[in-house]
Each structure stands twice: as C-alpha cells, then as structure tokens.
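Objective 1b: paired records.
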Amino acid sequence: MRVILAVALVVLAGCPAVQPPQPTTPEPRSPEPVSPEPVSPEPEPPAITWARVESPADLPAAPPAGGSWRIHMIDVGTGLAILVQGADFSLLFDAGSNDPGERPLRVVAYLAAALGPSGDEQCTTSGAPTGTRRAIDHVILSHPHQDHASALDLVLHCYDVRHVWDSGAVNDAVFYRDFLTAVSEAAGVTYHTASPPPTDRTIHVKGFGVTLPAAVGWQAFSEGDEVALGTGARLTLLHAEGKRHSDPNRNSIVVAVELGGVRLLLTGDAESGARADPSAALGDVEEHVVSHFPALVDADILQVGHHGSKTSSRRAFLDAVTPRLALVSAGPRLYKGTRLPDAEVLAALEAVGATVLRTDERDATCRGCDSWLVTIAPAP
C-alpha cells in the first residue's frame, strides 16, 4: 500500500503544473445599428383669419366649433367693445361709446346675432320679448369711463351674466351708478373687484348708495390670478388697481386671454403717460405689465390701448408684445381736441409687423359698419 502511494506521489510529482486559464482580450465587435427615435413634427400653430362685419346679419348663426374661437371688435363709434366667444364660454370686455347718437341697444343687437337673442322687450329692436335668457360668462369693465361702460347696464339687464369684473375705483358719474345698479339687480352674479368689498356692501356714487344684496357674490381679485374660461381657454389678470385715481385710465384692467395656441392681450385704456412719440420711455401701466409679466404680454393679437392714442403703445411696449394683429377701436368724436388713432401709433404698429384693423375707417359714410370678426381655428 505504501508502494502504491509512493508511486502515485512520484507520478504526480513528474506531471507539469496545471496553469490557470489566461484572460483573453475579445476581438472588437462592430456596434449594432441603433434606429433613431422617431421625432414628432411640431404642431402647426392655429390659423388666424379676419373679416369685416358690416351688419350683425353677416355673423355666423352657429357658435364656433370646439377648438376654435372668435374675437369680435364691435364698432361702437368712439368707444370699445370686444366679445370673445368659444364653443363653451363667452366674455365681453367693455361695451360703451362717447357718441351722442350711439344707442346701447346696438351692442345688444350685435350680441343677439353672435350669441342669440335674450331678455325682455327692452332688449330687441322690435320691442317684443325674446322668450329666453342666455348667459354671458364674464363681463369685464376695464375702467370706469363712459366710452367703455355706457351699454353695460343694458347688457346686464338682457343677459344672465355670471361674473362681472371691475377695478372697483369709483367714477362719480351717472353711467357708473347705472352700471352698479344693474349689478345689484343681477341675482346669481359674482362681482369681482380689485379692492375688497366694504363691510356694508354699499358703494356711494353720484349722491346715491348702491348696496349689493346677499344674492350677489362679491370677491376681490389680484394680479396674477388665473381664470378658466373653457376647454383650451383661460385668462390671466396682469393689472389690477382698485385705488381711485384722478384719471381712471390708470385703473385699466389688463388681461391676457389664452385661446388654444393664440394669446390675446386686452388693455382697455392702459397708458405709459402723457401724449408723446412712441419712441418715448415706458411708464405707468404699460411699464408695469412689461416688467411684471414679460412672458404673458407677448401676444399674437393686441387690443391697442386708449383707442390708438399717443398716451399708449410705446415702442418698447410693442416690442415686448410683438403683435401679429392690432385691434384699434376709435370713432368720430375728438378726445380733448384730438382725433384718434394717432398716425404715429399706427406707424409704430406697422413697424413691428402688425396688421391693423380699425373701426373708424368709414365713419364719414357708414357709422357702425366697421366691426371685425377674428377667427382662430386649427391649422388646415
């Protein structure tokens, strides 16, 4: 047994040592081809088209289709009225005129054609009740001047208005008292002001106290507030000033309205200061919104401030807005001896590439014939 073990040991001793496997470097392989990720094409921006409206009879009978919107600049003469209409909401920004012959019923007649007739015998040219009441979701009074508000009391009487937006700065004038009285009588409406409501819910104007009853909601709003309007549409409040100023233009509510991929900037009579060439420095409300909301003032469509006056539309403001379309609502009556719009403002708008639509082009021959309908629709 010992021999066998010894032989085995000798045999084992004579065998070469087993070497561990040596690492090898693999031959380089060509990388597998990688298919690029498919790149989705950028969606086409919505199409913006416009047409002159000589009469409410020219308006489409049906509301816009979903994903489309309409912006109406209503020819009210020397004043402003803008209607924004979607498939599921409506918004009226101002409705007033300074022309002695301009009647509030003309605005209501236009609304009847665009939204449908609504209200009692006071709301139709025939003097007959319409048999129904229709809703307007939002009415915004940019600031308390007659050329922006003279028709709003009738609008509130004829339509079921759900939300009214007002700076809250009081103008001691009959038209503003009438407007507030109409708000107080609109049961179910919510009244929004930039100043908080007083404890007694009473506003004193032109020697009278207008008290808003409990049936009227009253809420304060602030700059930066966002409000859903409908599918694909919302507004953002860019300027809210409830403190009373000697010039109510400084109270102008400024809103950015998003309509799908298009932005509309509504400015009322927002100004930069005294009348000056558009090359002058920014100031006042225009400077405020540019400095606080630089992204939101960049808009496709601009309602030109103060009817095209040189108090507004500084070149620095227009450079921030970069409008493709400029809406100028003006009329035959002079503003402090000046006929608007000013030529320098029109030139500045054209210099930034804006197409200008005006409500005053045919005032000498056809009053009220220069309303405009702007349509926003998906690209074909």
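Objective 1b, second protein:
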Amino acid sequence: MKRKFILPFFLLPAITCFSQTTKKITPPQTTCNGTADDVPGIYTDHTQTKYGFSLKGTAAEKTVMMKNLISIEKMEEASRKDFKLTGCVARVSFAKWGNTDYGNYICARYGYTLGVYQLVCHVTEHVPKIVDEYKTVFNVTINPYILPGGANTVGTGEFYTKYGRMVYSFPIEAKPGPDFEKDKKDKPSRVSQYFSESSLLTGRSDDYKNKHTDFLKLNNGTGYVENGWGDSRYKGPSANSYYMIDRHYLITKPGVPLLIPVSRKQYLEDMLDYFEIEKANFEYLNAKSINEIGNQTADWAKKRKADLEADKIDYPKIYEAKKAKVKELLAKQKPEWLQKPAVVDQNTMLKDANQSLDALGRFYDEEGEYKSALYVLNPAYFTGNNGQAVKPLLIEVQFRYEISKDKGFAARLFNNWEKHFDINALKQMIQ
C-alpha cells in the first residue's frame, strides 16, 4: 500500500496464520429462545486456536516472542478474573507478520489476537450456534507499522504535477535506473519519509473535530483514539442502531515522541535534494513517452509528441526556478522563521507547474483543511533494540467492539476490559 504525502507542488492487520487441523468447539448444549446472549461463553487460550500458528525466527527469537505473547495473554485473562463470559466464544491466536522498518532499525512484527465469535440462537432448533467470523476483537501488536497497513519501508508515495500540457506521475523515493529498487529501499529520498498528522490517524481516528489532539495522544502515547463512530460520535447512538467502535492506543517510551516536526529549513533543504530525483524521473518519463509514440502519424500522436517536446524544453526552466526560489528562502529568511514547523499547502488540485511553484514557499502556522503538518521518525525514540529484532520498541493496542441491542456480549466484554485490563503492564514491556 502506498503512502501519499501532499507537499507544495505536490508530493503526494490482516492476520497470517498457518493452517493446521481446525480445532472445533461445540457450543453449549442448552435451550435458547430468540437470543443466545445470556448463554455461558467459552474461552480458549493459544493452545486451542481455531487455526494453527507459526512464529518464524531463530530459536532464541521464538522463545522471546512466545514469552511476550503469553504475558499479554495472561494480562487479558487476569482482567476477566471476576467476569462471566456470556453470549460468545473468545479464542486466542498468535501470529508473526514479518518485519517493520523503523528507519535504521528492523524489528519483528508479531502479535496477540482475541477473536470474539457471537453465539446466536437457531430459529428452529432453539440451540446456540457459533457465528463463523468475528467482528469484535482485541489485538496487541508488537512493533506495528506507524501507518496501519503500510509497507515495510518508510519511503513510499507518488508525485503528481502538470508541466503546461501533460500530467506526469512518478516515484518520489529515488532516481530511475538499474539501482532504483535498491536505492528506494536503502536510501530513499528524505521527503519520501515524511509523515503528516492525518497519516498517523488514518484507520485509527475519525474524530475530525479533534485531529490535532488525537495526533498528540498517539504520538506521545498518552491516551486512546477511536475510529468508526461516524456522526454518532457527536449525536450519540440510538437504541436500535448498530455501531462498530475501533479503539486504538500506542504504547510508547515515556516522554519520547514517535515523530518530530520537520522545520521549514529542513523541508527546503530536503526539496533541493528531491529536485534532482524529480528531474531524473521527468527526463526518463518524457523520453520514454516520446519513444513510445515513435513514427506514428495520427493527429493524436502528433499533438501528444508536440506537447512532450514542449515539456522537454520548458521543464529545465521550472526546475531552475524552483531551485532558485528555495535557495533564496534559505538565504534571506530569518532563523526564527526557518525553524518553525513546516505546515504546507495540501490542495491537491494545484498540479499546474506555476501554481505549484507559487505554493512552494507558502507555509502555515497549524494543520487544518488543505494543510499538512510534516513529521519524521524521531531518531531518539527508535534506538535501543541492540540488534534484537523481537524486542518491543512500540506496541499498538486495538479493541474493536460492536454496539447493538443483540450484541450485548461485545459491550460487556469491552466495558470489563476497560475497567480491569492493566495497560500499564504493557508499558513495562518497552521500558
């Protein structure tokens, strides 16, 4: 999945288990009428998963992963010490999804999942049945992606612009050529490693009225955010409505933010680095497009080729103008202006080269509509694993639950978890 950054001109967990013999669970053999929400529930730990699992790694790494995951499992079990599970079947599974790339640190990404399957009352047999899939789930992911569902590497995205007549689309990570894939992985452009406040909230919070507050909660590990409320967040759910609430926490090192702001100075300097990548990509695509037309004589081919040839002449002027503007800003602006955070224009319609050039020196004081505050990984945070890939540097907690008149089991389980789960114990795992 590609991550898109909007810059002035414009830079734009599924669980993998390893199938074994299914371990079936028989629902309670009791009579029900209309609902099975009050039927005694069933819990199985990781030794009785629905599907088998495998934690790939060295023997030492497997031992550490199992120890950490079993610790999380025991925390959840302890939270239900005085709780009666009803109306559902709760099944634990473990998984390893691969690795997460935190800049210079490659960490194993693995986690604990408690899938909660609803018990329903069969309409004619009047006995409980287990729904095949779960919607309510409690996940704890060790070393998660900063961007949910994101790629292993930080440098992803695309750049869109229009040079007078044509619209070009090309990578922002590295120059084209035989070393592109290697450079994209090993030394991506600095601008391709930017995050925005909105990108950190993607899939985690839809509270559009409090975006900055929610960003700070995640970035500093100081609270939870929620996704999936929609308009009910501000109106409140009705008695007969159905909602799925997705709560997220990032468990972080105390007092050390995950991301730090990009200053205007850093942004402008990074732009100079990027212009060389843009130039190489433009020249590559322009030449490729001209070559593909070849000697075709149709009217459309003649017009397209003329546009491409005109762009070939015009681009160097645009390239030099952007470099000159950035260098002038760096030379003439006062240090206090240059050290302010880089909050850039985010109007994706500004693809025209002249409009993009105008937006290049336009900064704002805070993130808002059509504006994006830029951040990078905090080097001070992502240290300390000492080559131990399975050591937790960051933990994400997710509890997704349902609210409706026939999903009482989900709300009860979540309410108990919220009151009794020792989330501070998770924090001890990364200190």
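The mean pLDDT is 87. The first helix runs from residue 59 to 79.
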